[in-house]
Amino acid sequence: MIELKDITKSYKVGKESFDVLKQINVAIHQGEFIAIMGPSGSGKSTLMNIIGCLDRPSDGKYLLDGEDISTYKDIQLAKVRNESIGFVFQQFQLLPRLNALKNVELPMIYAGLGKKEREERAKQALTKVDLGDRMQHMPNELSGGQKQRVAIARAIVNQPKLILADEPTGALDTKTSYSIMEQFTQLNEEGTTIVLVTHEQEVAEYARRMILVRDGEVVSADEQVRRVTT
Ligand code: ADP
Ligand code: MG
């Protein structure tokens, strides 16, 4: 589905140039569930932002379903992002003045859907993440786990084929983390491709493949981490 070829990302800070990603080669296949791990500062978030078309590489190719999108204009990339990718973040990134339902409606506003359809689909998505009884709650009236579920509902509401989650359990306690990972597992079993960044081995074990990043390089991309479940 996605192929990154010799992706490099450098930043200029003052007069110095830093290579944050160095010739990364990664393939993500449809239906995969991948955990990206690596030390802090190794380039995981930078890589996620490039995969999510939130940022552009300095060099290299990005193939989406065989098509080179590294040459796309910003507006074309925004379309790809809105139609095919859902995002989940460590700090949830909900709008504080909108209730759960309105937060989930946001991506559909960008997609230009009418009010009735938006509401209907947002309700469906919230019900799917077990928040059918919290639709009118404001973010500050929800627990951390519930906020992350709202964020997941928002991520899936446009039915993306890929979900990117950067440390989605980083702000949650262990038990809540597991329930969020169960949610991702269910989405993956229904066919959604999932790529997440985590520091925690227990969280990574929900994935089926691990990509290890160190100092801007992929040092391993085929480790199987799936727990044996009976
Ligand atoms: P990780 O998510 O693995 O902790 P990041 O991808 O956030 O790492 O950052 C990797 C490196 O890139 C860090 O050394 C960071 O300082 C640097 N970096 C990230 N964003 C920028 C930026 N906008 N300008 C300059 N350097 C950056
Ligand atoms: Mg990071």
Automatic annotation (TrEMBL):
PROSITE patterns: ABC_TRANSPORTER_1 (PS00211), ABC_TRANSPORTER_2 (PS50893). Gene3D superfamilies: P-loop containing nucleotide triphosphate hydrolases (3.40.50.300). SUPFAM superfamilies: P-loop containing nucleoside triphosphate hydrolases (SSF52540). Keywords: ATP-binding, Nucleotide-binding, Transport. This is ABC transporter ATP-binding protein. GO terms for cellular component: membrane protein complex; plasma membrane. One of its GO terms (molecular function) is ATP hydrolysis activity. Residues 2-228 form the ABC transporter domain. Belongs to the ABC transporter superfamily.
